[in-house]
Amino acid sequence: MSNALRLARGSFGRVALLDMDRPLVRHAHPHCHVLLKVEGADTQFSVAERVVPLTDESAVLINAWEPHAYAHFEGQPATVILALYIEPSWLGEFRPNWKASGAPDFFPDPVGATNPRIRSLSRILAEAMVRDPGNEAEHERLLAGLMIAVIERFAAWRDTPASLRLAAASAVDHRIRKATKTMRADPGAVTDIDRLASDVGLSRAHFFRLFEASLNVSPRIYLNVVRMERAVAAVAEGTASFATVSDGLGFSAPAHFSRFFHDHVGSSPTTFRTVSALTRDRF
C-alpha cells in the first residue's frame, strides 16, 4: 500500500517522500509541483492530457492547478518518489519573478530530462529526510539548492515578466471568484455544485464551462483541492481525531475521508500523522 515515508514542512511548502504502489486519482495542487524518482521502478504520471515518464533521467513537472494523476499499473513494482509542493512566495525570495511559479505556464512541458546535479541533490535531500526527519533548517537548505537547479533547467521564468504572467492568471470572472470564496470559506458546507452555480447566478452548464476556462480545473477538482489542503494541515499539525476532521470537511463517514486522503495524498492519514510527528518532536 502506498504511504509517506517522510514529510518535511515549512515556509517552502512541503516535501513528501512517498513509497507508491497504487494509483492516485485526478487532482491538482495550488503550488508548482515537481516529482523526482529516488529509487525503485520507472513509472508514469498523467498530466493534463499526456502520460509522461518518471525515471532516473526524467522529472515530472506540474504547474499550479494543473490536473494530474498517478498512472500506476496493476502489478507494477513500487517507486520511491520525492514530491515537492512549493510555495510561490518562498521561491520569490530567490528571484522576484519566481513568484510566477503560481501561474499556469511556469513549466512549459510536463516532463524534462534531469542532469547529474538534480539527481544527486534529490538523493541527498531524501536521505536527509530519512536520517534526520526533524531538521527543518537542513531540509530547507537542501531543497533550496534542488529547486534552483530544477527551475534553472526546466522553467520558462525568463520569457515573460512575472507581473504579466500573474496578472493573466488572476483575471477570473467575478462569479467564479465568488464561488471559490465560498468553497475556501467552508469546503465541508459545499455539498451541491449545482446549488453553488445557482447561488452565483449561473446555469450549471455555463458555470462549469466558465469555471474550467478561468481556473483550468473543474469545480469538483477545485473543491477537492481545498478539502485536501485543509486535510493535510489538520492531519499533519493537529491532534483532532480523524472523525472530527472528516466531519468538518463534509465527509459522511471517517472511512470515506481516509479513502479520499489516500487517493489524493498517497498515504493513509495515520501514517501521514506519524511521519509528521517525527518533524515536530525533534526538540
UniProtKB/TrEMBL annotation:
UniProt KW keywords: DNA-binding, Transcription, Transcription regulation
Superkingdom of the organism of origin: Bacteria
Domain HTH araC/xylS-type stretches: 177-275
A single GO molecular function term of this UniProt record: sequence-specific DNA binding
InterPro entries: AraC-bd, AraC_XylS_family_regulators, Homeodomain-like_sf, HTH-like, HTH_AraC
PANTHER family, per the entry: HTH-TYPE TRANSCRIPTIONAL ACTIVATOR RHAS-RELATED, TRANSCRIPTIONAL REGULATORY PROTEIN
Protein name: AraC family transcriptional regulator
